[in-house]
Every structure is written in C-alpha cells, then in structure tokens.
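Troubleshooting entry. Yesterday's outputs looked truncated, so today I'm pasting the complete records for two proteins to confirm everything comes through intact. If either block looks cut off, that's the bug. Protein one:
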Amino acid sequence: MSLGTPLGTLTALTVTVTVVLGLYVCHLAYRGYRRNDSETMRVLAVGVLFVAVVPYAVSYAVAPLLSLTDAQTILGVTLSHTVGLAAIYRSTSST
C-alpha cells in the first residue's frame, strides 16, 4: 500500500476505520458476554473479530513477516472470513 497517492491514503484510512470499528463492535459483544454470561455474544465477538480485524492482520502484518505469496495471503484472508461468518451464523442460530 503506497501512501503517496490519494488512493493509497484513502485505502489506509478505510482499513484503519474498518479495524477500529470492528474492534469496537467486538468489544461491545464481549462486554455483553461478560455481563450476561451469554455464549451467543462470545461467539459473535469472535465472528466479528475474524471478519473485520484478522484479514487486515493477515494482509498487512503476517504476510510481510512470513513472506507469503499473494495466493497464500488471499487464502488466509478467505479462511478468516469463513471462520468469522461461520461464528456469526452460529451466534444467530443458537438458542
């Protein structure tokens, strides 16, 4: 990501806002879990974390550190999304 261009700056801003909002929603769900001892809220917090935060950690931290190829990075992001969506589905379908 090149910050020297307007598109690079917009991308960096969008990534930052997505991660911050994802962490905030995850925090709220985790607080709900702690306050009400609700398994549903804990699973929702994990789902939001894997959908909104982990993909960016994979793309911008793990991939450069481990010298992952583009295909490996995309696989990591896709797996993160899949785990997150499965967790969110589980949180909405549990009784």
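Protein two, checking that the full record survives here as well:
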Amino acid sequence: MLQNDGELTENSVYNKSENATCNSWNIVLRFTWWFAPGSQLTLLYGTLWKVM
C-alpha cells in the first residue's frame, strides 16, 4: 500500500496465486460511410469477454 509519505508497505490482503490464467476475446465492428465529398459517418461497436 502507498503511504502518505510515498513509502510502500506490504499488502496483507493480497493473496498471490501464480497458477491463475486470464483469457480474453475482443471483437470490434466498424462501419464507415462516405456519403458526400468531405462527409463521413462512422459507427463503432466493441465488446470484451474475460474468462478467469
């Protein structure tokens, strides 16, 4: 934990597990439409799945 004077103390709450894995999937969809000279419309959709 960070103290007010900038020093670090050990965090007694944290239980370090070196046998953990984390998998994630990221999907992003983008649609861009140029409908006039100098005009552009872009739609974005994104999602993220995490498995721990």
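Both blocks look complete. Sanity check on protein two: The chain has a mean pLDDT of 87.
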